[in-house]
Design a protein that fits this description.
This protein is an alpha+beta fold. It is built from 9 helices and 12 strands.
């Protein structure tokens, strides 16, 4: 379907389920708000994919197998899903002695997961439901990405602003942004302006030799999106 049709269908879904009546102001009038809320999470998690300019399609259900240890594997299910498919998965898991569970996520589809994913379970899923099972290669993907230092080296340095109200990203505080007072010396880390939290982020780091600092502005949409 086209992006225009997709946006319209998302708004109609929000209206039919009562979600539209729960918001006010600009979000109620926005043409893209409900596509962001209902469709974008599906795209980010691989449940749909773009097949051409302004064209999208559903992805058939697939299972990613993560090996925890030699006696235990976990299957996480992705792709288009439905209530009837859940019942079929549940039946197969009961037969094989596996455990099927689901976990809700903020701004994303419910996660389906199968514990006790033995070879018998994999064979049953492939035979009964024609579900393709693939190995989890996320570690390999992450290992191939550049480090933060390598990424910063390819960005133009700038001056860190010395005014305004700022927030710093604090991994040690449950991955939250925390208000911070500008002071010297400035701690290393990721910063954003409090009054324009969706605008841009700064990365501030000190040189290994202790003789200087580098500040880079993440003003490109894809860089700022990753930082946020």
């Amino acid at each position: 379907m086209s992006t225009t049709t997709l946006t319209l269908n998302c708004r109609r879904l929000a209206e039919s389920t009562g979600m539209l009546a729960q918001v006010q102001g600009a979000e109620k009038l926005s043409q893209s708000h409900w596509r962001y809320q209902l469709f974008d999470p599906l795209y980010r998690l691989g449940h749909v994919e773009q097949i051409a300019q302004d064209r999208w399609m559903l992805i058939p259900p697939v299972a990613i197998r993560t090996v925890v240890n030699e006696n235990r594997s976990v299957l996480r299910l992705y792709g288009a899903r439905s209530t009837s498919l859940w019942q079929q998965f549940h039946t197969v898991c009961q037969t094989c002695g596996a455990t099927l569970s689901q976990t809700g996520q903020d701004n994303g589809p419910t996660r389906w997961q199968i514990e006790m994913a033995t070879d018998d379970v994999l064979a049953a899923l492939e035979q009964a439901l024609s579900v393709e099972v693939y190995p989890d290669r996320s570690d390999e993907l992450l290992a191939s990405l550049p480090t933060l230092a390598q990424a910063i080296a390819h960005l133009e340095p700038c001056q860190f602003p010395q005014h305004g109200q700022w927030e710093q990203f604090c991994p040690a505080s449950q991955l939250h942004w925390q208000p911070i007072q500008l002071r010297q010396p400035l701690p290393e880390g990721l910063y954003r302006p409090r009054e324009q939290s969706n605008y841009a982020c700064f990365i501030f780091e000190r040189h290994p030799d202790g003789k200087g600092t580098t500040t880079v502005l993440l003003d490109q949409p894809e860089l700022n999106y990753v930082a946020r």
